[in-house]
Design brief:
single chain, four-stranded antiparallel beta sheet, elongated, disordered N terminus
């Protein structure tokens, strides 16, 4: 019974003035984020306490000394959110809600190829184009040409 009485004595009698942070963490669409880490960091001492959000996106960090805090919320796949210089007063139950934005997606594509050896000293491995003695454009009908300066001579070319 003595321990029950000790629990019911206000913390002020012990000389410790405390407060708490609580709230809900959601994403941009308004859906709750379960499992997010909420951390309260004392700006004066650097001491920190953290909590995880429950299935309803709610968190509670109780029994914090009166001080200025930075609250940081982190969750995989989302950008972390931070609020600085949040003053916690004696016996204050401060409620702060957070909204997380999706993290930027970065993708990297790496292309690799192997070098192909080209034989440049032996012409028999390849073909010459166009083949010797052939024209690039070849028509089915003979092409009539007239030499410059002659008016009556006609020749054909294949």
């Amino acid at each position: 019974m003595a321990w029950m009485a000790a629990l019911s004595i206000p913390s002020v009698l012990y000389g410790q003035a405390t407060g708490s942070f609580s709230g809900t963490v959601t994403d941009k669409s308004g859906s709750v984020v379960a499992g997010a880490t909420v951390k309260a960091i004392s700006e004066g001492t650097g001491a920190s306490r953290e909590s995880k959000t429950d299935d309803n996106g709610h968190y509670l960090i109780p029994l914090l000394p009166v001080a200025n805090y930075t609250l940081r919320v982190e969750f995989t796949g989302f950008q972390s959110v931070e609020r600085r210089a949040v003053r916690l007063q004696v016996d204050e139950q401060r409620e702060l809600d957070f909204t997380l934005s999706p993290a930027a997606v970065a993708s990297q594509v790496e292309v690799s190829a192997t070098e192909v050896a080209v034989e440049t000293t032996n012409p028999s491995l390849g073909q010459r184009w166009p083949p010797a003695g052939r024209f690039l454009c070849r028509s089915a009908a003979p092409v009539l040409t007239r030499p410059i300066g002659f008016s009556t001579a006609w020749t054909t070319m294949n």
